[in-house]
Design a protein that fits this description.
alpha+beta; Glutaredoxin; Glutathione S-transferase Yfyf (Class Pi), Chain A, domain 2; 2 domains; 4-stranded mixed sheet
Length: 220
């Protein structure tokens, strides 16, 4: 099997890559990186000096591919499935990449800041991070009005990014009740088989997530 994914089942950016793999039924081997095992971290850093996961190892091309968005692009190019996650149409593809960046930078980043603060004893001022989450929620709600998926009618890389971002973010800070388009989008994401599979695999590790008690009931 040419592909090996170095990842952890709880990590949100790993979820993005896993959803892409599962969407197209791409065969791969799993290499779970144990948070507490220095040998695992040394192996990861040997493949990607930044020590971040996920990292995809392509044995056929003797290549290590880092960063979740780049992994999805790489898979779409070299290991395409029935469903392209990067549209051929340039304008649509630009929208996919734009919303992928919005989710990673303005949803995932503040969510992870809040999670890290809770793990460190909740001593930081998280008002800016929470305000950014609120702004991201409202931006997504406005954008999703009348849409099935972020870039239109097709599920894409941007949705692979949004699923874990929203899953963890809503545990950190619930959606305002008036944001019906965002709530509906979240429901569609969770009903996606590839997304449900990723969440099911993460469930045994939820105890490590400091906001586990706030995970939406239907997702536990």
């Amino acid at each position: 099997m040419p592909l090996t994914l170095c990842y952890h089942p709880l990590a949100s950016f790993c979820h993005k890559a896993l959803i892409a793999l599962y969407e197209n039924g791409t065969a791969f081997e799993r290499r779970i990186i144990d948070f507490g095992n220095e040998k695992d971290w040394a192996e990861l850093r040997a493949r990607w000096p930044m020590g971040k996961f996920p990292v995809l190892r392509d044995q056929a091309r003797s290549r290590d591919v880092a960063e979740s968005s780049i992994i999805v692009e790489y898979l779409d190019h070299f290991y395409p499935g029935e469903r392209s996650l990067i549209p051929e149409d340039w304008e649509t593809a630009l929208q996919v990449r734009f919303w992928d960046r919005i989710v990673d930078n303005y949803l995932q980043t503040p969510m992870q800041q809040i999670v890290a603060d809770r793990m460190q004893g909740a001593k930081g001022d998280m008002r800016k991070a929470r305000a950014m989450l609120e702004t991201s929620y409202r931006l997504l709600d406005s954008h999703m009005a009348g849409k099935s998926w972020i870039a239109g009618q097709d599920f894409t890389m941007a949705d692979c990014a949004a699923a874990p971002g929203l899953f963890y973010a809503t545990a950190v800070q619930t959606f305002p009740p008036e944001l019906g388009s965002l709530a509906g989008y979240f429901d569609r994401l969770f009903d996606r088989p590839a997304v449900r599979r990723v969440i099911d695999e993460a469930r045994p590790y939820f105890a490590m997530f400091p906001f586990a008690d706030s995970i939406p009931a239907r997702c536990r």
